Amino acid sequence: MKTLSLPTSGPGLYDITRAVADQIAGRGSGVVILMIQHTSASLVIQENADPEVQTDLQNFFARLVPPTTDPAMSYLTHTYEGPDDMPAHIKSALLPTTLTIPVENGRMALGTWQGIYVFEHRDAPHQRRVVVKFLKD
């Protein structure tokens, strides 16, 4: 089991595909399991060809779950860590925090345009940890 450490600089999708691939290279066939050790960020498999997809996803979730300063979010009570904190927890509850990906001959079975991303939901920079566990067939 390995742990990847990734600095983030605010909301957005951070590509970790290469870092995960490096952890499983030459390991044979099986599955790789990823888990982010945080409650305000997520893991997603998304398109890696057009950056507009990432921008649109970020904008969609910002609109779906706005900060607590938005009047529509006035019912939230967990606000002492900033207006982005509870919305980040909600986004993390809606999106995956664990991924399982098949591996064949040391390569993840991702589609042509797929990449693995940490989806940061907080405004401030953070150091995110992703656990990588390879299980051999």
Concise synopsis of the structure shown:
23% of the residues lie in helices and 38% in strands. With 137 residues, the protein is of the alpha+beta class.
Number of helices: 3
Give a quick account of the main beta sheet: strands, pairing sense, barrel closure: 5 strands, antiparallel
Uncertain parts = none
Strand composition percent: 35-45%
Strand order of the largest sheet: 1-8-3-5-6
| Run of helices and strands | EEHEEHHEEEE
Distance between the termini: 16 Å
Mean pLDDT: 97
| Rg computed from alpha carbons, rounded to a whole number of angstroms | 16 Å
Q: Which structural class do the helices and strands define? A: alpha+beta
Overall helicity: 10-25%
- Number of DSSP-assigned strands: 8
Structural description of this entry:
This protein is α+β, with helices and mostly antiparallel strands and 137 residues long. It contains three helices and eight strands; from the N terminus they run ββαββααββββ. The strands form two sheets. The chain has a five-stranded antiparallel beta sheet with strand order 1-8-3-5-6, covered by helices on one side. The chain has a three-stranded antiparallel beta sheet with strand order 2-7-4, sandwiched between helices. Strand 5 and strand 6 form a beta hairpin. The protein starts with a strand and ends with a strand.
